[in-house]
Amino acid sequence: MLMRTDPFRELDRLTQHLLDNGSRTRPVAMPMDAYREGDQFLVHFDLPGVDPDSVDLDVERNVLTVRAERKGPAVPDSELVVAERPRGVYSRQLFLGDNLDTEHIDAVYDAGVLTLRIPIAERARPRKIAITRGETSPKEISA
């Protein structure tokens, strides 16, 4: 199971919105959807305009860190007139439960969306337990 990691995210978003002076150089948080589908968790991160080579995924213990960079225009001798698109380094951490298999995470970046498939660990999957029948007649107890 995934655990929510950033209880102050909305407060940070509101503060950033109130203090924004129109020069969006500090990137906003990476929007994310996460859900369970069968024996795996899927996590989608919106990273529009990010070069796939700048995306970096790390897992240390049960913490998954996603980092990506969106660069601004690299046109020399140009004058930036409007800068509304966020740029800079994005970073987000997820705390993964012990029931997830962090050794077999699959990541795909397509059309500005990073999709992670995290399998549920074999030991955490539901399983049937066989029941054996005991003897139907009581044993004699000798004194």
TrEMBL record:
InterPro entries: A-crystallin/Hsp20_dom, HSP20-like_chaperone, Small_HSP. PROSITE patterns: SHSP. It comes from the Bacteria. CDD domains: ACD_sHsps-like. Residues 23-134 form the SHSP domain. Belongs to the small heat shock protein (HSP20) family. PANTHER family: HEAT-SHOCK PROTEIN 20 FAMILY MEMBER. This is HSP20 family protein. It comes from Streptoalloteichus hindustanus.
